[in-house]
């Protein structure tokens, strides 16, 4: 068997139901080993036996289900969804005018309005409702028809049927010259459902594809050393293991490799989130994506593309995204059970009254319409977005960006916290401890001539001019003409001491040695966050790629009892997987590219506005302000929203339990059913307004 895999970009996908249909159909084909889709970015990853299937045959199978597919290329983006605001605006305009006309008709029934005037108003309502049904309602028809062609139904199916039957029944009643028509019901139905759809799309657009952004990071050129010694510029993707490349200062490393130069400093913050550059000596590993701080660096390529560390992290993100959540499975099960129940109720109502109770065709049809309208999932559909949209907007005003209502729901259910250290619970850069002021001023005259982050911090707050004729030795330090030195302990001749903090050493021209210690400090709000998490019964575990000793020292200083160091990206994934299997729902806090797989694998995840772009995209929630107190604040808001959503769903269930039997018994006309349906939606929306900021 020859295994082949490829990601396809999909066209025509609108929801998770579309992805589920494609997955089921493709998975049933002979030779297909894996089919995992993502509705957010409209892609599907397929793995197949090339002896039984080809790329073209799989595309044909996707087209057979009613969608189109093309091989996905790096840099491609998902097709933009058209705006629903024109449809929503038209539906709102028509609804308000038809409601005003209906009020006049209702008043006329109780007074002295003549049948001619009433008919005239009904035809005006029909003229206003027709474009709403044909244009605004078309949002629901496409997915319904596509599903029906494959013998399936979606949540749009009963909506489409209710719109069509209510509209046609209203035309029928208008032609009959009766007092009551239901154009107000059909326009209200379309309007309220479009509100939910607009909210859903707006929230979904905030999410992105972290794996794609990570791959795009490596779309750079590399300077490769040819066999004859000439330098040639080639795309990073064309490099091969064994190639020798030269990376200048400020340039990004194009592939994993081993350093051939004696030494170099690498800024790996884009990978690890660690701000300070790492000193690399000859033969040590260099990772793709790092930026050479002091160069040029000559290196030999060992791994490229998907085999490089950055490629493996990207693939881990892709695999995590492809897995469906338990919430999505529950939503699919609900849709499969609810839709036949609604349609069956409408058919049963018509059959009962027409065939058993011998009602007229028109009366039986009106009862069926009443059942479809009163059971339309409008209130149930708005139960979550009515609250989650308000919660998302309120959190955004405090500096918390929630990418989707699903992330808000998962945040409310999280029961443990797992956090990275540097750049997450601690400040990205260490802080200078209280130094000898006179020695600091002297050392700052050398530090002012260096671009090293610790040297810059040594000069912070001082008005100092660098000494002339300074000589910087890459990876070691800087030297003045009079012999004064600033840099590593070995460079200045200081005793070889090991400390948990970063130390910058200075030797004066007379030989006096001073050490300037920079200690890792907790990020603003960490103590308050720990207290708040304890009150929320959410224990925190510190999980970092730093050494075990530095992680333990930071945990002791900040009062974090559970901690684990030397955690590589796959170690973090393993830890989270173990916790999830044990029934825990972890909230992951991280800021580096190496945290991205864990951010995606966690039950829910949070990153920072100052974090790496890949971490921000991978996270479900982003803190615009670097304030850790926003974490428990967001959890409290999410839990309050969850409680209100539960109330809305309970109300929706009770509403259906009470109104469906009444509609089947003939006690509800379509007009009353429409009023009840609209009232249930308004009640759900009003309940969402009760959401307040936590104290």
Features:
695 residues, 7-stranded mixed sheet, 6-stranded antiparallel sheet, Alpha-Beta Plaits, 26 strands, Calcium-transporting ATPase, cytoplasmic transduction domain A, alpha+beta
What would you note in describing this structure?
The structure is a single chain. This protein has 695 residues and is α+β, with helices and mostly antiparallel strands. It folds into five domains: 3-71, Alpha-Beta Plaits, CATH 3.30.70; 84-205; 219-307, Calcium-transporting ATPase, cytoplasmic transduction domain A; 397-427 and 523-637, HAD superfamily/HAD-like (Rossmann fold, 3-Layer(aba) Sandwich); 431-519, Calcium-transporting ATPase, cytoplasmic domain N (3-Layer(aba) Sandwich). The protein is 50% helix and 17% strand. It contains 25 helices and 26 strands. It has a seven-stranded mixed β-sheet, with helices on both faces. A six-stranded antiparallel β-sheet has the order 6-5-7-13-8-11, with no helix packed on it. It has a six-stranded antiparallel β-sheet with strand order 16-21-20-19-18-17. Helix 23 links the parallel strand 25 and strand 26 (621-623). It is elongated, with a radius of gyration of 32 Å. The two termini are 61 Å apart. Residues 74-78 and 320-328 have low confidence and may be disordered.
> Nearest-angstrom radius of gyration?
32 Å
Number of domain modules:
5
Strand content: 15-25%
Strands in their spatial order, largest beta sheet = 14-26-25-24-15-22-23
CATH structural fold name of the largest domain: Rossmann fold
Q: CATH superfamily membership of the largest domain, which one? A: HAD superfamily/HAD-like
Q: How many helical stretches?
A: 25
Report the count of strand segments: 26
- SS content category: alpha+beta
Task: Give the CATH class of the largest domain.
Answer: Alpha Beta
Terminal Cα span: 61 Å
């Amino acid at each position: 068997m020859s295994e082949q895999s490829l990601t396809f970009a999909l066209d025509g996908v609108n929801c998770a139901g579309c992805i589920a249909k494609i997955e089921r159909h493709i998975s049933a084909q002979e030779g297909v080993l894996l089919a995992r889709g993502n509705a957010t970015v409209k892609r599907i990853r397929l793995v197949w036996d090339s002896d039984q299937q080809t790329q073209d045959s799989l595309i044909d199978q996707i087209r057979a289900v009613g969608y189109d597919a093309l091989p996905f290329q790096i840099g491609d983006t998902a097709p933009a969804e058209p705006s629903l605001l024109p449809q929503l605006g038209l539906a709102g305009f028509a609804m308000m005018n038809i409601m005003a006309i209906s009020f006049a008709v209702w008043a006329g029934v109780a007074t002295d309005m003549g049948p001619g005037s009433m008919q005239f108003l009904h035809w005006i309502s029909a003229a206003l409702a027709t474009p709403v049904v044909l244009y605004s309602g078309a949002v629901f028809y496409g997915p319904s028809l596509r599903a029906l062609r494959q013998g399936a139904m979606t949540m749009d199916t009963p909506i489409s049927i209710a719109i069509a039957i209510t509209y046609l029944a209203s035309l029928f009643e208008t032609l009959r010259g009766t007092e009551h028509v239901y154009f107000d019901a059909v326009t209200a139905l379309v309007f309220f459902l479009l509100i939910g759809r607009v909210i859903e799309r707006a929230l979904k657009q905030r999410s992105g594809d972290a794996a794609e952004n990570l791959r795009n990071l490596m779309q750079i050129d590399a300077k490769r050393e040819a066999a004859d010694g000439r330098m040639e510029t080639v795309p990073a993707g064309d490099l091969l293991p064994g190639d020798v490349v030269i990376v200048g200062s400020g340039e990004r490393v194009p592939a994993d490799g081993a350093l051939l130069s004696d030494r170099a400093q690498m800024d790996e913050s884009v990978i690890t989130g660690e701000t300070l550059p790492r000193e690399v000596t000859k033969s040590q590993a260099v990772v793709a994506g790092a930026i050479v701080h002091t160069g040029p660096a000559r290196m030999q390529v060992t791994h490229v593309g998907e085999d490089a560390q950055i490629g493996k992290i990207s693939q881990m993100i892709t695999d995590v995204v492809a897995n469906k959540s338990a919430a999505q499975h529950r939503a699919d099960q609900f849709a499969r059970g609810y839709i036949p129940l609604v349609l069956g109720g409408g058919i049963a109502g018509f059959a009962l009254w027409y065939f058993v109770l011998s009602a007229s065709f028109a009366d039986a049809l009106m009862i069926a319409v009443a059942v479809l309208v009163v059971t339309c999932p409008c209130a149930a559909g708005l139960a979550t977005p009515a609250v989650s949209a308000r919660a998302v907007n309120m959190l955004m005003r405090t500096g918390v960006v929630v990418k989707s209502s699903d992330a808000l729901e998962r945040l409310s259910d999280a029961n443990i916290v797992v956090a990275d250290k540097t750049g997450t619970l601690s400040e990205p850069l260490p802080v200078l401890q209280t130094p000898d002021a006179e020695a600091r001023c002297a050392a700052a005259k050398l530090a002012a001539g260096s671009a090293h982050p610790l040297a810059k911090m040594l000069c912070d707050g001082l008005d100092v001019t660098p000494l002339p004729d300074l000589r910087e030795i890459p990876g070691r330090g800087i030297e003045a003409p009079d012999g004064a030195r600033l840099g590593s302990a070995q460079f200045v001749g200081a005793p070889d001491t090991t400390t948990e903090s970063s130390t910058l050493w200075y030797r004066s021209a007379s030989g006096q040695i001073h050490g300037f210690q920079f200690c890792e400090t907790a990020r603003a709000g960490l103590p308050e966050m720990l207290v708040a998490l304890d009150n929320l019964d959410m224990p925190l575990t510190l999980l970092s790629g730093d050494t075990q000793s530095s992680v333990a020292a930071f945990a002791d200083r900040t009062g974090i009892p559970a901690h684990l160091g030397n955690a590589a990206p796959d170690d973090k994934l393993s830890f989270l997987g173990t916790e999830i299997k044990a029934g825990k729902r972890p909230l992951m806090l991280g800021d580096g590219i190496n945290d991205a797989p864990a951010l995606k694998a966690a039950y829910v995840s949070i990153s920072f506005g100052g974090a790496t772009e890949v971490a921000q995209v991978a996270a479900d929630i982003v803190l615009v302000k670097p304030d850790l107190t926003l974490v428990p604040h967001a959890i409290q808001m999410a839990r309050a929203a969850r409680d209100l959503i539960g109330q809305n769903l309970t109300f929706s269930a009770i509403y259906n339990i009470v109104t469906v039997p009444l509609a089947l018994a003939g006690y509800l006309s379509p007009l009353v059913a429409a009023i009840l349906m609209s009232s249930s939606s308004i009640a759900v929306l009003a309940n969402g307004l009760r959401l307040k900021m936590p104290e």
